[in-house]
Amino acid sequence: MNIVKEVKIVRRIIILMLAVSAxxxxxxxxxxxxxxxxxxxxxxxxxxxxxxxKQISLVNKNNMYQNNDLSFQISKPNNIWEIHSASDExxxxxxxxxxxxxxxxxxxLEKEHDKKFLITVFNIQKENFQLNEYIESQIILMDSxxxxxxxxxxxxxxxxxxxxxxxxxxxxxxxxxxxxxYFNDGKFYMLQYSGNSPDNLSALERSNYQLIMDSxxxx
Length: 219
Hints:
Blueprint: H1 3-21, E1 39-43, E2 46-50, E3 64-67, E4 72-75, E5 81-85, H2 92-100, E6 103-111, E7 114-123, H3 131-145, E8 149-155, E9 161-167, E10 174-184, E11 187-196, H4 203-215, E12 217-218
């Protein structure tokens, strides 16, 4: 199987994960984040800071993207990166399925037409949600499709954020996935990376991806 087909399969699995796992999107409602102070954690690309929407540096301020309708912000490493609506990439069937699960919208971050990061936002209506149960549902789904290895699985005690990464074990270099998850004001936010394993990235690529992960904030 060639690389193009491999990448399409991985992306279809990500979309399937969004559609199917959204069934598990009840929420333990919090009016505000239980711990609104800054939190440091580690992504696959390096240390990142959570709950710090003012952390965009002056150097990158011009590359900051802010979506007031969906209430999030993120920074591009440079002008080579572009941001496009995620809805344009979904089929009519996929969009219908996602909207039935509360899908509000999202964007892709791409570099030279290579879509590395996907942000999706869902409106949550159900109760008693636990992030660890959501992640476990994804693990089960991925194991049914691909041989995978969990690399990071960290869920906050307050159940308002989590970070999760997996090596999907394919022969294609584009086999690695990572999600940064947030809850805020009844909405579920997901930043999803799909691409090469960090071991196969250059120092510059890791630095750029760390900046993206670090800059993603709910506002």
